[in-house]
């Protein structure tokens, strides 16, 4: 009987022992090479954002500069930072850490695994006004880029201060009802949100759980990486002049943009216009009259990011992109409201000592500045490129930050920008 | 207290393995520890219906108490008398909780009933079947305590396969000899790993990876499109691998406990006609409907000569039977239409087989015609699954 | 008429085939019998031989060949 039992269960036992050994061992399984890093830099893949290993490998090099942002990164036209930096072989390449649907909260959690790499590093952060809607980040979009590894990283980093408590609360709230959450992790998050300390057992559990998750990440996060976006970048290279001259580049931009926006008067790229707008163009008229980006929990989520940057002493260039002005007029998006948003976000940045801001909010009417309704393109990218290049080239200014927890309050989230002056006086 | 959906999580399988060690050792030495089996069952039921899902757990307990009392009372009655109306009332009372649960979302715009829990419809099948066998007099030694264990047998509690009282009792009261039990262990382990491939690889690939993509394509092009065809095939494979994978786990778990729970699937996509398909697809459900709905209705109609022609009887009963199955799935137009289509398909299928039989030699029969039949059946079935998926509802009405 | 003959007659009626030559053939696999046929068989047995066989009694694997059916009928008589 022993032999028969071994024949049945032996292979299972052996396989289990090997797998457990592999997954829980303290050793790092290192298989990230420069080819994977290069692919990952433009992949916009959720697996890269969810994991640590590829980000860690790439960001530990000065060559890769983390770019936080969202859907604008998928607009690979000839002046997209990934394209232009490749064409003229600048001394850095963007490592794109954002895609459609990523907002401040995603960025905060994906930073948790690479704090060490972000230390004293330069970074670029594109703030989309469209994130700042009434309910803030969408739970579905958030869960698409969220992983248990991020949560465990956060739990290991947190020290129980106001900012950590807010983050834990926020995470519990946004991930409520999603499948696949680990109950120990949820329990630990609840403790942090209530300002309690984690017990020794909980810490040990997190340590081993992290080993498991890290090994999974090391083994599989580059699994579905495809070079699709790399091809897009390479295809655009030939559209730039070989000689890096501003006037020649502007000519190339005009050539491409003119050709690709021929179908409409908004200056929107043909493919976007035809696929997403044309059919229902009438219904868009005046549709965004009541859109409001001035009152949102996103302001506090963004504060988490600022807090993390300050902690890591990361030198960040913030970019505030405009909205396509012709389009904004058509859909009735209020200019007043956009100005209000700008005032609020500028105050939140500057009052805490973040002064590297490229504010493009007034450039929405410039020709070929936007690729579609809200996304930077062509001249817009080029304006950004130049700012980024000089930012990377110059020495870090070593800003000092004075962080204020008042930005976690709902009072701030819901503050009407018209009342900003009174608010400043009172606080 | 966490709550784990059965067979969805590595932790669940590890706990199963640990809990089964005493059972396996006992069985190998010819012993069955019923009290330990009950403890294990209780533990896993708690794991499924505890913690955040405790409301479902309470609903389950209430339901079990209700059904045990109901069936026991009917059994007591049946020992003395055998009126048809009492039998009918007993069956109606047995399905009443399920009817309430199924109708609640319809009446209260999508709200779930508080007396519902994962697996209520499968337990109802077991209860109704027990009532019917008591009525027929083939189940003479009904025991409420055993009935409870039969109902709450944890490996199959959430989604079947649907076992039968007498069959289950035969296994439950005996211990397979060592040779046979070793064979069951071997098969069980094989099923578990096959289940992993089905559920965690293939079902994941079709359901989680491909399905959203084809849905997106289909939704963008409105109406009939290649995307919709993709939805149809992808959903069909997803449905099969997901459910067959789950069923393999349930059967394997039963095997470890020395219970030969019947299989649910037998390569359904190679069926040559719809009748054969229902003998291969979700078998314990279709056999249940065959034995407790179809055959009884036919028996009733024939005995009372309701319809002149046996063919008419068969056809009408097919449609009633499949419609009822549609209603059982849920009160939405697409589930009911799904049942109706299959009912009509069975009628057409019977007619075609009869026509062929009456005209021997008129149609060629060879490998090619067989493959052709499989092809037609497969595509038809996939089409009905597209209806079943509810995707058309999303596409046309939302 | 003995039981065997009666059963074979009923089966011949139901299936349209003379099955006396293949007493161990699986009637369900060959498509000669189905659920409908089964019910008819049970009803015929009831009228011709007076056997009360409820549907629950009918376990396919015990009724799938002519020989098994005859054995089952004799057991129930």
UniProtKB/TrEMBL annotation, chain A:
It holds the Pfam family DltD. GO terms for cellular component: plasma membrane. One of its GO terms (biological process) is lipoteichoic acid biosynthetic process. The chain crosses the membrane at residues 6-24. Pathway: Cell wall biogenesis; lipoteichoic acid biosynthesis. Keywords: Cell membrane, Membrane, Transmembrane, Transmembrane helix. Belongs to the DltD family. This is Protein DltD.
Automatic annotation (TrEMBL), chain B:
Keywords: Acyltransferase, Cell membrane, Membrane, Transferase, Transmembrane, Transmembrane helix. GO terms for biological process: lipoteichoic acid biosynthetic process. It comes from the Bacteria. One of its GO terms (molecular function) is acyltransferase activity. It is a multi-pass membrane protein. InterPro entries: Ac/AlaTfrase_AlgI/DltB (IPR024194), DltB (IPR024024), MB_O-acyltransferase (IPR051085), MBOAT_fam (IPR004299). GO terms for cellular component: plasma membrane. Its EC number is 2.3.1.-. It is found in: Cell membrane. The keyword DNA damage does not apply. Pathway: Cell wall biogenesis; lipoteichoic acid biosynthesis. The chain crosses the membrane at residues 12-30, 35-52, 58-77, 84-100, 106-125, 145-162, 189-211, 223-241, 332-352, 372-392. Belongs to the membrane-bound acyltransferase family. NCBIfam families: LTA_dltB. O-acyltransferase that catalyzes D-alanylation of both teichoic acid and lipoteichoic acid (LTA). D-alanylation of LTA plays an important role in modulating the properties of the cell wall in Gram-positive bacteria, influencing the net charge of the cell wall. Catalyzes D-alanylation from DltC carrier protein. This is Teichoic acid D-alanyltransferase. It comes from Pediococcus stilesii.
UniProtKB/TrEMBL annotation, chain C:
GO terms for cellular component: cytoplasm. Residues 1-77 form the Carrier domain. The modification O-(pantetheine 4'-phosphoryl)serine is found at residue 35. GO terms for biological process: cell wall organization; lipoteichoic acid biosynthetic process. 4'-phosphopantetheine is transferred from CoA to a specific serine of apo-DCP. InterPro entries: ACP-like_sf (IPR036736), DltC (IPR003230), PP-bd_ACP (IPR009081). Belongs to the DltC family. Carrier protein involved in the D-alanylation of lipoteichoic acid (LTA). The loading of thioester-linked D-alanine onto DltC is catalyzed by D-alanine--D-alanyl carrier protein ligase DltA. The DltC-carried D-alanyl group is further transferred to cell membrane phosphatidylglycerol (PG) by forming an ester bond, probably catalyzed by DltD. D-alanylation of LTA plays an important role in modulating the properties of the cell wall in Gram-positive bacteria, influencing the net charge of the cell wall. This is D-alanyl carrier protein. It comes from Pediococcus stilesii. The gene is dltC.
């Amino acid at each position: 009987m022993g032999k028969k039992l071994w024949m049945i269960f032996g292979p299972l036992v052996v396989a289990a022992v090997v797998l457990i050994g592999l997954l829980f061992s303290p050793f790092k399984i290192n298989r990230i090479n420069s080819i994977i890093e290069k692919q990952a830099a433009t992949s916009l893949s959720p697996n890269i954002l969810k994991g640590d290993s590829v980000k860690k490998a790439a960001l530990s090099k000065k060559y890769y500069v983390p770019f936080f942002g969202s859907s604008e990164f998928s607009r690979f036209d000839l002046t997209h930072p990934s394209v232009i930096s490749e064409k003229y072989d600048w001394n850095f390449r963007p490592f794109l850490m954002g895609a459609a649907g990523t907002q401040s909260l995603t960025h905060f959690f994906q930073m948790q695994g690479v704090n060490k790499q972000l230390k004293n590093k330069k970074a670029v952060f594109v703030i989309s006004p469209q994130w700042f809607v009434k309910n803030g980040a969408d739970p579905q979009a958030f869960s698409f880029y969220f992983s248990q590894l991020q949560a465990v990283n956060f739990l290991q980093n947190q020290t129980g201060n106001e900012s950590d408590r807010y983050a834990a609360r926020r995470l519990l709230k946004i991930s409520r009802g999603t499948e696949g959450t680990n109950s120990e992790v949820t329990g630990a998050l609840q403790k942090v949100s209530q300002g309690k300390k984690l017990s020794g057992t909980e810490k040990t559990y997190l340590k081993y759980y992290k080993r498991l998750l890290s090994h999974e990440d090391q083994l599989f996060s580059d699994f579905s990486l495809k070079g699709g976006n790399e091809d897009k970048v390479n295809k655009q290279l030939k559209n730039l002049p070989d000689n890096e001259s501003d006037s020649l580049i502007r000519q190339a931009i005009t050539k491409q943009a003119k050709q690709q926006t021929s179908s409409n008067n908004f200056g929107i790229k043909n493919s976007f216009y035809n696929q997403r707008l044309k059919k229902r163009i009438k219904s868009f008229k005046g549709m965004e009259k009541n859109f409001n980006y001035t009152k949102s929990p996103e302001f506090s989520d963004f504060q988490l990011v600022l807090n993390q940057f300050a902690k890591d002493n990361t030198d960040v260039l913030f970019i505030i992109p405009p909205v396509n002005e012709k389009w904004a007029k058509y859909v009735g998006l209020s200019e007043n409201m956009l100005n209000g948003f700008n005032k609020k976000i500028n105050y939140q940045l500057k009052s805490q000592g973040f002064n590297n801001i490229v504010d493009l909010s007034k450039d929405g009417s410039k020709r070929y500045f936007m690729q579609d309704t809200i996304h930077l393109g062509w001249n817009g990218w080029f304006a950004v490129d130049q700012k980024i290049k000089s930012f990377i080239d110059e020495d870090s200014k070593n800003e000092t930050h004075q962080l204020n927890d008042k930005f976690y309050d709902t009072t701030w989230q819901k503050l009407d920008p018209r009342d900003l002056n009174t608010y400043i006086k009172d606080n | 207290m966490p709550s784990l959906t059965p067979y969805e999580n590595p932790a669940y399988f590890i706990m199963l393995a640990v809990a089964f060690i005493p059972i396996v050792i006992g069985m190998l030495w010819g012993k069955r520890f019923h009290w330990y089996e009950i403890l294990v069952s209780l533990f896993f039921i708690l794991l499924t219906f505890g913690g955040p899902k405790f409301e479902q757990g309470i609903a389950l307990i209430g339901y079990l108490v209700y059904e045990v009392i109901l069936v026991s009372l009917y059994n007591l009655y049946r020992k003395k008398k055998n009126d048809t109306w009492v039998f009918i009332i007993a069956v109606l009372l047995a399905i009443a909780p399920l009817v309430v649960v199924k109708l609640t979302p319809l009446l209260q715009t999508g709200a779930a009933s508080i007396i519902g829990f994962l697996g209520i419809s499968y337990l109802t099948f077991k209860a109704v079947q027990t009532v019917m066998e008591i009525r027929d007099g083939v189940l003479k030694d009904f025991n409420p305590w055993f009935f409870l264990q039969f109902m709450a047998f944890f490996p199959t509690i959430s989604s079947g396969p649907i076992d039968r009282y007498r069959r289950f009792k035969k296994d439950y009261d005996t211990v397979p000899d060592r040779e046979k039990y070793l064979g069951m262990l071997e098969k069980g382990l094989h099923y578990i790993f096959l289940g992993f491939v089905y559920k965690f690889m293939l079902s994941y690939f079709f359901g989680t990876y491909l399905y959203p993509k084809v849905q997106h394509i289909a939704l963008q092009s409105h109406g009939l499109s290649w995307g919709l065809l993709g939805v149809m095939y992808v959903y069909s494979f997803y449905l099969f691998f997901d459910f067959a994978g789950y069923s393999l786990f349930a059967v394997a778990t039963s095997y470890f406990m020395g219970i030969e729970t019947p299989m649910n699937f037998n390569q359904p996509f190679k069926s040559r006609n719809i009748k054969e398909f229902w003998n291969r697809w979700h078998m314990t459900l279709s056999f249940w409907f065959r034995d407790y709905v179809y055959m009884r209705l036919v028996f009733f109609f024939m005995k009372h000569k309701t319809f002149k022609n046996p063919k008419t009887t068969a056809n009408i009963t097919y449609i009633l039977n499949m419609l009822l199955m549609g209603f059982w799935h849920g009160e939405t137009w697409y589930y009911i239409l799904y049942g109706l289509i299959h009912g009509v398909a069975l009628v057409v299928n019977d007619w075609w087989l009869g026509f062929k039989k009456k005209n021997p030699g008129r149609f060629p029969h060879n490998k090619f015609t067989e493959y052709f039949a499989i092809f037609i059946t497969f595509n038809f079935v996939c089409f009905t699954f597209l209806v079943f998926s509810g995707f058309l509802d999303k596409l046309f009405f939302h | 008429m003995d039981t065997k003959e009666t059963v074979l007659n009923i089966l011949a009626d139901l299936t349209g085939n003379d099955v006396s030559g293949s007493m161990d053939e699986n009637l369900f696999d060959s498509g000669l019998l189905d659920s409908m046929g089964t019910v008819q068989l049970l009803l015929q047995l009831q009228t011709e031989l007076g056997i009360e066989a409820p549907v629950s009694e009918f376990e396919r694997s015990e009724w799938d060949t002519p020989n098994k059916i005859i054995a089952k009928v004799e057991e129930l008589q």
